[in-house]
Design goal:
By secondary structure, the protein is of the alpha+beta class. The protein is built from 5 helices and 11 strands. 28% of the residues lie in helices and 25% in strands.
């Protein structure tokens, strides 16, 4: 099934409402039951598998099925859902993208992120939404710099309102201003030395 941004946004909202990963046959069956419980309408688990790409299909999604998914997340129908994706001036959009919520990290976690052209950072999470740069390659951020951040989204720039460097703060900084962050990776925990 062709990736349609509006459909991908809808599926992401459905997953968020459902609150669990939808990646097994039993998960699709349970989601089908949950959708029917909330909407009074049924979508088969096989249809759900096609939407999520769990099984290959060239079949276009039925509008009736999209309407049921939209009702599951509290919208009137799929068309209404699409209308709220864009503001009247067409500048605001809800979208599905790979992201990292900092609230999911624990102090000591390390992440790598990169952006074009050939920029790479290794960060240590300090807690309370604060990070310290461990390594910096081709970036204006320096090892030892600290900053606060709540979320990272692939394809979007990383906005830092201030960077703490050598006891001072810098002006705001934008990483990946042109094409956004290209990847985010949580690094495995380092083994204790001893």
């Amino acid at each position: 099934m062709k990736a349609i941004p509006e459909l991908q946004a809808l599926l992401q909202r459905v997953e968020n409402k459902y609150g669990r990963a939808i990646d097994t046959t039993s998960a699709f069956e349970a989601l089908s039951i949950d959708i029917e419980r909330h909407t009074g309408e049924r979508i088969s688990s096989s249809s759900l598998k096609r939407f999520w790409g769990y099984v290959n299909s060239d079949t276009a999604p039925r509008v009736a099925s999209l309407d049921i998914l939209a009702k599951y997340i509290g919208q009137k129908d799929f068309n209404s859902f699409c209308k709220i994706l864009r503001s009247e001036d067409g500048t605001s959009v809800f979208f599905g993208a790979e992201s990292l919520s900092v609230a999911s990290l624990t102090p000591g976690n390390r992440i790598q992120l990169g952006w074009d052209p050939n920029r790479l950072l290794t960060l240590e999470y300090l807690g309370n939404f604060r990070f310290r740069v461990e390594e910096s390659y081709n970036s204006k951020l320096l090892a030892g710099d600290c900053f606060e951040l709540s979320d990272l989204i692939v394809g979007c720039p990383m906005f830092l309102s201030r960077i703490y460097r050598d006891g001072k703060t810098t002006p705001p900084y934008v990483a990946g201003a042109k094409d956004g962050i290209t990847f985010i990776k949580i690094l495995p925990a380092e083994k204790a030395k001893g």
